[in-house]
What we know:
The chain is 45% helix and 10% strand. By secondary structure, the protein is mainly alpha-helical. Helix 2 (51-61) packs antiparallel against helix 3 and helix 2 (51-61) runs parallel beside helix 4. It contains six helices and three strands; from the N terminus they run E-E-E-H-H-H-H-H-H. The chain has a domain at 41-130. The longest helix has 18 residues, at 79-96.
Amino acid sequence: MWYDQKTVEIYYDHERIAMHLRSRDTNGYTTINEHMPVNHQQARSINGFSKEDLLTKASRIGSNTHKVAEKILSNSIYMEQNYKACFGMLMFEKRYGSQRLEAACTLALTGARVNYTMIKNMLRTGMDKQIRLPLDKPLPPHDNIRGPQNYQ
């Protein structure tokens, strides 16, 4: 491989096999469709494989599914991976139904991070079906519970 400020050249057995202009994007990358494996090219051409279409599909399922889709789509700098994870998460609707997917997304949003695997595991193990106690219920009075006056 050889590169300068404007171009990148790729060599194999001392023979140049590719030459491209360098991208000026920081923390980004460029993908040329012809250089991708065939199955990735097909995935890229799936109808609805754009950010806007994925978010529209997520909104149809529910508001928390939409929030999770937004988080998944912004998880890393590799947009194709984010699209694939988001698309996969939305496909759980076919297997588990929209109510369960929305419930899993609601539960996932209570944590610090959200990803495809988390949603998959919640649906697979049935965590989305568990009854959750409301968090806004005050603690009962007790001698061992201290109030704000103890932390000044």
